[in-house]
Amino acid sequence: MELGLFQKQTMNLVMTTELRQSIALLQYSALELSHFIQEHATENPLIELEEQTLGLDNYYGESFFASRTVNTQDNNFNPMSTIASKNSNRCEDLLEQVNYLSITKQEQKIMKYIILNLDDHGYIPMQDRKIAEDLCISTEKVAKVIDKLQQLEPIGVGARNLKECLTIQAKHYYPDKPLLTCVIAEYLDLLADKKWQELGKLLNISKEELSELANLITSLHPRPYSASVDSETQILYPDVSIEKVNGEYSITFHDPFMPKVRLNEAYLHLKQTQSNAGAFIRENYHKYKWLIKSIEQRKTTIINITKAIVERQQPFLEKGFTHLKPMTLKEIADQIGMHESTISRATSNKVIRTPIGCFEMRKLFTGKIAGDNGTEASATQIKLRLKQLIQQENRKRPLSDQKLADHFKKNGITISRRTIAKYREELNILSSSKRKTIG
């Protein structure tokens, strides 16, 4: 091996801090981008922000207000105020009920301690012994308080496990059905596995009686907290909208949360000096220019992606997800002349509003399954059709995964049984053996 000094010419890509931040900027949501800009403004004296007044009538579109009878002339009108507020906190509701019980002060303290430690489903996650140790009382005292707690609304709250939760509800709602509590206590696993014949023999009852018991159990709530409180309303703020105006689709980019970025010229005269202050101002001026450029590139990229979607998905925009064509990130990247990873980042955390609804942009990208006659179907179309088939099936003889795959094959789409099982699980649909009912 010869030692010495040699000249060598190489090419490599260096990821600068600004390049990394530009990439990160693409995948920010509107709110995240607003926070990012505000952070830069606190560090850069040349960045001056002007907060935008949120014109919700323009943001959501006139069609949003068309069906409302409320007065929208007030500039301070907020359409979100027309949405019913979430129910009172579950824990607070239970604590309020405790105040009306005829129990001692000590029992009140014990019960409130247990309520504050209930899990998200309304179950007691601790053993009686642990509660007794924490409060320095007897396990008998704990059990007595829990019995009283289980009398509160919603029925089933304060149970230690699923069987106890269902048993509490069965005794409360169906006191004249003692066999129901027996099935829950002894044969719940057989019932879950839909082993009707074995269960009928063990209980020595007819199919009609067994069917009635099964229907009663399915009417109970395994998670009392979830049954008692409505889920919080989720509000989607679209980053981009597609609307049909005079037969043509128009695209609108939304940035209601993003403040307007202006150049503060008060310190700009220092840029020409050779002092430390001048170097500082030149560096921050460069950062200001980069920020403006990155924000504009982000906007342009999202609009170009949306234009490509409109060109490819007009049937979907008119008729919904059943007409969603197969579309991959790579296809859009090739169409607008960008890298696939750029499209992936630009569509992350973005919400699109279309004539058929408002949803995450990534939902429009789906793989393709080739048909026998040269046609293609998207995975979303397959899932929707799969869901329809299962909803229409005879519940006494539900369709197996193989039969579902055979159905698609008859219609020109070859899909494996394993893929059917995968899609079914993604749709939270049980297997055919567990969908079977008795009649």
TrEMBL record:
Coiled coil: none annotated. Belongs to the sigma-54 factor family. The keyword Nucleotidyltransferase applies. Residues 280-436 form the RNA polymerase sigma factor 54 DNA-binding domain. Residues 82-267 form the RNA polymerase sigma factor 54 core-binding domain. This is RNA polymerase factor sigma-54. PANTHER family: RNA POLYMERASE SIGMA-54 FACTOR. Pfam families: Sigma54_AID, Sigma54_CBD, Sigma54_DBD. It comes from the Bacteria. The gene is rpoN. Keywords: DNA-binding, DNA-directed RNA polymerase, Nucleotidyltransferase, Sigma factor, Transcription, Transcription regulation, Transferase. Signal peptide: none annotated. InterPro entries: RNA_pol_sigma_54, RNA_pol_sigma_54_core-bd, RNA_pol_sigma_54_DNA-bd, RpoN_core-bd_sf.
